[in-house]
Specification:
By secondary structure, the protein is an alpha+beta fold. It has 28 helices and 19 strands. The radius of gyration is 35 Å and the shape is elongated.
Length: 726
């Protein structure tokens, strides 16, 4: 195919243009600037007779021309509410400024209506010759109803086909509306499948889905439900990298005046949304089987007026008549496991939109509003941007432990919430790596299981970006405390020795260590074996010197050597962060090294982070005494308190672990937060326990994680949680 270029003379009809794009580059197709294709003032040369049906292609001029002679179309004393229609054509072939020279052009026809277009105004005209008198009256009522709905929506929503007036056209009842830019979602999908569905970027589909759910949410905010939304009635327009979705043909929309009706009709709209998403994200074919089955139950001709929707707006009995369309759709949608083969997060969303709402247990796993869908799609876009390889965005390719054996899997470094604490630590890191004029220190205090270590580990990536080093050690009741610091340094040098870096890579560090420690470095070889290899020292260690020095003097010398060694590692090009966890079990020598590090004027570009259990350290504890000594030396340090995480953070954690949209996890996360107090360790334990007991499981039929909320609510809390919370 020839490459598509913007015409400098006469633009081609958009439909013809699209039909010649079978082999066009996908990026070019989805980044079409519709406004630039049709230059202003060139519509006189456009062949509108082959325009797409439904009234959805327009020029770039957003203004609505004045339609001279169009009145309200209603008579105050007309008991039927239907105005008599004039036989005088309101839009004649006589040209006017900015108008069509040849007058309104016929775009499409259906059984009882015809669609005309004049510039950016569309006209839906009732064909009285093809309809009975009763059908005409019913169709007129639909026109008036569409006008009422449009006016209702204008207060909060502009993303619909705006009705200008109900009047007449050549003696026939007609509805005048603003012609919309873009192409219908159905045409968009057809072109996707013609090109190659698998090479269309996932984010392109995702942003189209966001636009559709946003518009539906705006409808619901006005207490209006569309009532059986379909791709034919959605117009997509590209705008600044995103899409705007506008709904056309409001004739069957429902203005809900009571809560129960509104709830039932929103469920109808959400099911339709699930069917559309099923088509939008389907990997191949011309449309999802679920939607094909739904369409067989009744649809709407583009631009026409039919009475095949789920709800009949006009009924003699005064009650809205609901067809079997919704029930058929849900049964068929549930049978084919919608969302299969899609990322788990998205598959769960589609499944939740199509789940049978008549089942009380299942209804807890179903979406309640279009706004929740929109917010979850926004979260998915943000998540995919920051976590490109996140498990929730991958296809359902989990191993047998997840799918067959239904086993939960947690990321190694679970981190949620803590934004304030994290910003404080990052500020210290920034100061220590950029200024580096003096050592810096922060203590992280909290109860066991609150995520102190995980918080500290978040500095690894920004530190690595600065070419810095991260040394960590952890005290334990089963390990001699005086060995912890030496073991952490030994692991650090061992990792350097095992790296593929050349001998000259760390030459400057060797020189700094020699200058700072001198010949005394050999005294450290016994406690830090990897240091000998790093220093390329093959001489024998003289242990007689250690035996001739008393225990107290040897301890003082070791503290001095540790301090100088750590100071030699850090420099402007390689800043250092030293982390020691569970300081409540630290020994006197290690605490002495920390104090020396903080008061040594020769140490620069260094940050010390220490974690301890707040409930095990009081004023008489050795750690408290050493911290007071540091303060007396004029050294200021920060203490960061870490407690329970908030409910929204628990919800984010569960959303990631279960690969479910956040809105679908809120019932479960509320219960989990209540039972764990928001302590991250208890949250993890509870989820594992629920999985072991079969209260949280992976459904092979639904291709999503499920949970039994009622049984989880009555589950007793563990003793350690009760003890902590009391």
């Amino acid at each position: 195919a020839k490459p598509v270029k913007k015409s400098t003379t006469q633009p081609e009809n958009l439909l013809i243009l699209i039909n010649t794009m079978d082999n066009i580059d996908v990026d070019d197709f989805f980044n079409l600037d519709l406004e630039s294709i049709f230059e202003e003032g060139s519509w006189d040369d456009l062949n509108l007779s082959s325009s797409p049906p439904g009234g959805h292609v327009s020029n770039s001029n957003p203004s609505i021309p004045e339609l001279t002679g169009i009145g309200s179309g209603r008579s105050a004393d007309n008991a039927s509410g239907v105005a008599p229609f004039s036989t005088t054509p309101l839009l004649s072939a006589t040209p006017r400024p900015g108008g069509d020279i040849n007058g309104p052009q016929l775009v499409s026809t259906s059984t009882c209506t015809s669609i005309y277009r004049s510039q950016d105004t569309g006209i839906k005209v009732i064909d009285q010759s093809q309809s009975t008198s009763s059908n005409v009256q019913q169709t007129i009522q639909k026109l008036l109803h569409e006008e009422t709905v449009s006016k209702r929506l204008l207060s909060q929503c502009n993303n619909h086909r705006q009705v200008i007036e109900v009047s007449s056209f050549n003696g026939s009842p007609a509805l005048y509306f603003k012609w919309e830019n873009g192409i219908t979602c159905k045409e968009w999908l057809d072109k996707v499948h013609q090109i190659h569905p698998q090479i269309v970027e996932f984010n392109v589909r995702l942003r189209a889905a966001m636009a559709i759910s946003k518009t539906l949410s705006q409808f619901h905010q006005c207490s209006v439900t569309y009532n059986s939304l379909s791709p034919e009635n959605i117009v997509l327009t590209p705008l600044e990298g995103d899409y705007v979705a506008k709904f056309i043909d409001l004739s069957d929309a429902v203005i809900c005046n009571d809560e129960q009706t509104f709830k039932e009709m929103m469920a109808v709209d959400l099911t339709s949304l699930g069917l559309i998403f099923d088509q939008l994200f389907k990997a191949e074919g011309g449309g999802g089987e679920a939607y094909s089955a739904a369409a067989a139950a009744g649809g709407d001709n583009a631009g026409g007026l039919t009475n095949s929707r789920r709800v009949s707006i006009v009924s003699d009995g005064g009650e809205e008549e609901v067809s079997d369309h919704n029930r058929n759709v849900r049964k068929r949608g549930k049978q084919r496991a919608p969302g299969e083969g899609l990322p788990l997060y998205l598959g769960a969303m589609i499944s939740a939109l199509l789940i049978n709402g008549d089942d009380n247990d299942a209804s807890q796993l179903r979406y309640k509003s279009a706004n929740d869908v929109y917010e979850d799609l926004k979260a998915m876009v943000a998540h995919s941007s920051s976590h490109h390889q996140s498990s929730s965005l991958r296809e359902a390719d989990f191993d047998n432990d997840v799918t067959i054996h239904s086993r939960l899997k947690f990321r190694k470094d679970l981190f949620y919430g803590r934004q304030v604490q994290m910003s404080m630590i990052l500020h210290l890191l920034q100061s220590s790596t950029m200024l580096g004029d003096q050592p810096m220190m922060a203590l992280i205090a909290g109860y066991p299981g609150t995520g102190k270590s995980t918080l500290v580990n978040q500095v690894k990536k920004p530190l690595a970006d600065k070419n810095g080093f991260f040394i960590e050690g952890k005290f334990d009741v089963s390990v001699r405390p005086d060995k912890v610091l030496a073991s952490a340094l030994d692991s650090f040098f061992a990792s350097i020795n095992a790296s593929n870096a050349g001998q000259n890579t760390y030459m400057s560090m060797r020189w700094r260590i020699n200058d700072a420690v001198g010949s005394g470095v050999s005294c450290l070889f016994d406690v830090i074996p990897s240091l000998r290899k790093f220093m390329n020292d093959s001489t024998e260690v003289d242990r007689t010197e250690g035996r001739n020095i008393g225990g107290n003097l040897m301890g003082q010398r070791l503290k001095y050597m540790f301090c100088k060694l750590i100071g030699a590692i850090s420099c402007r090009s390689t800043p250092l962060v030293l982390v020691l966890d569970d300081l409540q079990w630290a020994d006197k020598m290690t605490l002495g090294v920390i104090r020396m590090l903080m008061i040594d004027p020769d140490i620069h570009y260094f940050l010390f982070l220490g974690c301890y259990r707040e409930n095990e350290v009081n004023e008489s504890h050795m750690l408290s005494a050493n911290l007071n000594d540091i303060r007396e030396q004029g050294i200021n340090f920060m203490t960061i308190k870490v407690g329970a995480i908030e409910k929204e953070s628990v919800n984010a954690l569960i959303s990631d672990v279960l690969c479910l949209p956040p809105s679908l996890c809120r019932p479960l996360s509320t219960v989990v937060h209540q039972k764990t107090g928001g302590i991250i360790m208890f949250v993890r334990r509870l989820l594992i326990s629920l999985n072991d007991e079969g209260l949280v499981w992976y459904s092979l039929s639904s291709h999503r994680w499920m949970f039994d909320l009622r049984k989880i609510e009555v589950k007793e809390m563990s003793e350690d949680v009760v003890k902590h919370m009391t």
